[in-house]
Amino acid sequence: MSKLIFRLLIFLIFITISIIIYLSFVGIETKRFNNQIEKQIKNIDGDLEIDLKKIKIVLNPIEFKIKAKTIGTSLKIRDKIIEIEAINGEISINSLLNKKFSLTNLEISTKTIEIKKLISFIRILKNDPKLYILEHIVKKGFIIADINVEFDSQGILKKNYNIKGIVKDSNLKILKKYEVNKLNFIFNIVDKNLKFEDISLNLDTIPFSSNKILVKKIEKNFFIEGDIKNKKIELSREKIPLYIKQLNPNLNIVESINFNSDNKFSFEVSDKLDFDNLRISSNLKINDLLIKRDLKLKNIFPKIKKKIEFLDHEIKINYNKKNLLIDGEGTIFFQQEKDKVEYKISKAGENLKFLSILSIRNNPFLINLLGYEKNKNNELKIDLDGKYTLNKKIIINSFKLTEKKNIINFNELVISKDYKIDSVRDVNLDYYDKQNIKNQLSITKKNKNYFFKGPIFNSSNLLRELNNLDNENKKNHFGEDFSVVFQIDQIILDKEHTVQNFKGNIIFENNEIINANLDADFSTKKKLKFTINTKEEGKIITLFLDKAKPAISQYSFIKGFENGSLDFYSIKEGNKSKSTLKIYDFKLKELPALTKLLTLASLQGIADILTGEGIRFDEFEMNFTNEGSLMEIEEIYAIGPAISILMNGYVEKNKVVSLRGTLVPATTINKVIGSIPVLGKILVGQKTGEGVFGVSFKIKGPPKKLETTVNPIKTLTPRFITRTIEKIKKN
Q1: From the centroid of its chain, how far is CA 114?
Q2: Looking at the predicted structure, is the pLDDT value of residue 676 above 60?
Q3: H helices, E strands: number in the chain
Q4: What's the CA gap between 583 and 544, in Å, rounded?
Q5: How far apart (Å, rounded) are the C-alpha atoms in residues 186 and 101?
């Protein structure tokens, strides 16, 4: 009997082991657990239905669990259906024996699903506005996912769910401006964390890629970090607005750009889609950037092109909410040859700092105001260090130009928000100009006074440039009132004239000189004197030069001026000034307008003298008024041994010249004066048929297209005779 029991026991053990082995390796199919799974799905949403086939169960004796698997299932809610590739679950045998909830975890593998269909399906489960926006952004694409969830003993879904999957060939349309296509990535969602890997996409046909992007939920916000890079993106003028003008509409000067970048970023997004705490770290390589030149810089860079090209720029960018750092260098091609530039821009709060070094080797560089011109064989460096402050002022901490031994340097230049010069701490000039004259001058500030001191300064170019400026450009350069004190040993006025002991002061108020007192010595007996005095009756200006040529030579239409002294007086009230200019004992060799007039008047002999030895004048006097761009000439009278002229008219700057007058050879004048008081001799001369006294003339037209007409005259106007007699008596 015992043997029978033993054999029976052995048989039962064998059968049990065989069943366990069969269930562990082969398993069986059943619908016994379908109802339990369907109930659990209903716990997620009452309208959610699952279509289950037979479930294959496999025993896991080690963990004392049953593994269940079904294939070809679908989830349905209302009219939306999601096809499921397979569902795997684990059932606790202990819970099953105790008639408790026994499903411990569930794994769902989907078939390839259209993303829009999936979003619509989820929206029914959870009608979130963000899903509505996402549904309209996504135009196409497919997703394959594996979902792994766990349940507690009460059948409640745990939060440690895991979703893995692949998104393929998706297409997004963002704000009707950006199109993202060919978007592919792998994703992994674990509770509140989301990881994207192996990302590739095209932004409007431009390819980008990313190794990894992580999304973490922290309370109600999402923290996002990752990387994105691209290889040699080339944007034409037509495509640039999509990428650049959306960031800054004022960047409309960019013509084309070719670049690649490697970027790391992080930011936070609230549940209301508000962005915050953006951080970016980028390595940017600009292979080629072409921009239109927007500034007028030809007077500094004579060979400047209409388009500026940046080549092979290596740029590092670090940005966060409060700080920005840009550090770069590369080639700049804006004249005939390529140059090098380095730059660093940093922003902390509302203050922006900038550093740059421009190296110019084979290109020209000019500062006409100072007469400075770079030697074509030398390298020139311009170092700039400045900042843009909260109150919108630009502060140039230091500007330094160096070319071998040439140095032009200034410090703490303050420029207001309306681009006026508020102040400068000091300036140092130590350079050879294009006339090979060494200039040494320093400017220092003390309170509101600027002190100009130095052994020598060549002012010839400065005077020429100031003379060429329009009245409009002469105003509103300065933001504050100040005074200037001069003490310069030697001032060069032109190639032939130098003054010593240049000293005095100028006071500026509201961008105008209200008082000035300057004097210098041409020699022991020759002086220069300039004054401005503002009084109730107006501003009185005087200028006296024992040597007039430095002042006259500034006018390009007068050539061959020799000798002479100059006396100028003007009184200005409001915008109107009344002036008198007198020049004594001078000679003219070239004056195109006068030469033409003499030729038309058939006074060829005098015209030949003018272009040869020159015509000497005893005195020139001009009385005129200025108001705006209009000069009204009351009278110009010049008298000399060979010729005398009386004329009047007006000049409207850059528009029209209108002059009329009388020109008389001096021999005729002498005979006329010698015949007074006999009126008949005045009219006809000593002999009958002696000839004309002179000519009347008119000069009129645009400045570069003047027309001259001449008519012979036999009688001189009383005005001409009166002025001549006055001059002769005075002399």
Answers
A1: 47
A2: no
A3: 13, 40
A4: 10
A5: 34
The Cβ of residue 429 has, within 10 Å, a number of other Cβ atoms equal to 20
Domain range list for the chain = 20-162, 198-364, 591-730
Which among 265, 264, 198, 259 is positioned nearest to 231, based on CA atoms? 259
Give 435's Cβ-side CA count (13 Å radius). 16
**Which of 496, 295, 466 has its CA nearest to residue 369?**
466
Separation between Cα atoms, residue 215 and residue 196, nearest integer Å: 8
Coil/strand/helix, residue 671: helix
Q: Report the alpha-carbon distance of residue 70 to residue 92 in Å, rounded.
A: 18
SS (H, E, C) 63-87: CCEEEEEEEEEEEEECCEEEEEEEE
DSSP structure string for 69-137: EEEEEEEEETTEEEEEEEEEEEEEHHHHHTTS--EEEEEEEE--EEHHHHHHHHHHHS--HHHHHHHHH
Nearest Cα to 404, choosing from 356, 361, 435? 361
Q: List pLDDT tens digits, range 422-476.
A: 899 999 999 999 989 999 999 999 998 999 999 999 988 776 655 554 444 455 6
Given 3-state DSSP classes, what are the helix, strand and coil percentages for the chain, each rounded to the nearest 5? Answer: 20, 55, 25
Pick left, alpha or beta for residue 168 (phi over 0 → left; psi -120 to 50 → alpha; otherwise beta): beta
Residue of 441, 274, 471, 284 lying closest to 370 (CA atoms): 441
Cα torsion angle, 501, 507, 513, 515, sign: negative
How many angstroms separate the CA atoms of 406 and 432, rounded? 7
Alpha-carbon span 73 to 88, nearest angstrom: 11
| Residue 403: both structure tokens together | 């070319």
241 cis-preceded (ω within 30 degrees of 0): no
Taking each helix axis from N to C end, the angle separating 115-125 and 129-137, rounded to the nearest 10 degrees, works out to: 170
DSSP per position, 218-239: ETTEEEEEEEEEEEEEEE-TTT
Rounded (10°) angle between helices 592-600 and 604-611: 160
Structure tokens of 224? 């996002």
CA pair distance 15, 26, nearest whole angstrom: 15
CB 51 within 8 Å of CB 76: yes
Run of H or E residues at 403: strand 394-403
CA–CA gap between residue 346 and residue 701 (Å, rounded): 56
**Residue 407 is encoded by which pair of tokens?**
């140095």
Write the DSSP assignment of 299-350 as a string of letters.
TTSTT--SEEEEEEEEEEEEE-SSEEEEEEEEEEE-SSS-EEEEEEEEEETT
CA-to-CA distance for 166 and 59, rounded, in angstroms?
31
Q: Which residues contact 564 (CB under 8 A, 6 or more apart)?
A: 547, 548, 549, 552, 583, 584, 585, 586, 587
Measured distance CA(409)–CA(383) in Å, rounded: 9
Instruction: Find out whether 335 and 266 touch, Cβ atoms under 8 Å.
Output: no
Q: Is 294 helix (H, G, I), strand (E, B) or coil?
A: coil
The string of pLDDT tens digits covering residues 394-423 is 899 999 999 999 999 999 999 888 888 889
Question: What is the average per-residue pLDDT within 719-724?
Answer: 65
Instruction: Considering only residues 191 and 508, tell me which one the structure prediction assigns the higher pLDDT.
Output: 508
